[in-house]
Design brief:
With about 55 residues, the chain is mainly α. The protein has one domain (about 1-50). The protein contains three helices and no strands. The chain has helices at about 1-5, 10-25, 30-50. Helix 2 (about 10-25) runs antiparallel to helix 3. The radius of gyration is 11 Å and the shape is elongated.
Length: about 55
């Protein structure tokens, strides 16, 4: 989440993919889907506000 909000040089897709890899390793499928949904919603909000690509 920090990288999405405060590290604009890091591509959002890379941030989300890394978070999903961690979730896959340490949790179940439902949690992976939840993490994906939350981070993608944040990414979309940032794009809409002009703060991310």
């Amino acid at each position: 989440l920090y990288e999405l909000l405060h590290r604009p040089e890091t591509p959002p897709a890379a941030v989300i993919n890394e978070a999903l890899e961690i979730a896959r390793r340490f949790s179940d499928r439902d949690s992976v889907e939840f993490v994906n949904g939350v981070l993608d919603a944040i990414r979309k909000a940032l794009v809409k506000s002009g703060n991310a690509s």
